[in-house]
Structures are given as C-alpha cells and as structure tokens.
Design a protein that fits this description.
Layout: H1 2-22, E1 31-39, E2 46-55, H2 58-74
Antiparallel strand pairs: 1-2
C-alpha cells in the first residue's frame, strides 16, 4: 500500500507538470477563455475575439503538487509489510 501511494503521488506530480508544460508553462492564473486577435477580411480592422479554451496556470500546478504531497505523506501512515522468516530457531 505504501509503495502504491508513493507511485501514485509521483505519477500525479509528473502528469501535472507535463500538462502545465505542454500548455506553454504559463506563469499566470488558469484561464477559461483566451483572447485571439483576428483580422476582418473586408475592413482590415484588427479585433479581439475570445475562444473558449482552458489554459492551466500556476494554481493548477500548485493543486497537483499539493495532491502529490498529501498522497506521499499518507503513505507514511501505513506500516511496512513484515517479511516472513524461513529459518528455524534452535
């Protein structure tokens, strides 16, 4: 159980960092919409439209890191498995 919790904590930490890095490693807060500059074909005027897209920020990174730390800390609550002794006492 201890090893499984520690492995899960490591997996969550790596997945969170990879997701955050794949999104461009933004140092701001998470966003639900992103501003996109578009050019009007007829008038040639540049305008800003908002596209619905989730961009993970440092708060998502902190939540994933906290979850990994909690799981790793929880693994210390379990006792290590006892090894059986195959030798005979005399």
């Amino acid at each position: 159980m201890r090893r499984a919790l520690r492995f899960l904590a490591l997996l969550i930490a790596i997945a969170t960092i990879a997701w955050w890095a794949a999104a461009g490693a933004p140092w701001g807060w998470s966003k639900n919409s992103v501003a996109v500059k578009t050019l009007d074909d007829i008038t040639g005027i540049e305008q800003i439209t908002y596209e619905n897209r989730f961009v993970p920020g440092v708060d998502t990174l902190a939540i994933g890191g906290a979850a990994a730390v909690v799981l790793a800390g929880l693994s210390f609550a379990f006792r290590p498995a006892r090894r059986s002794r195959n030798w005979v006492r005399r």
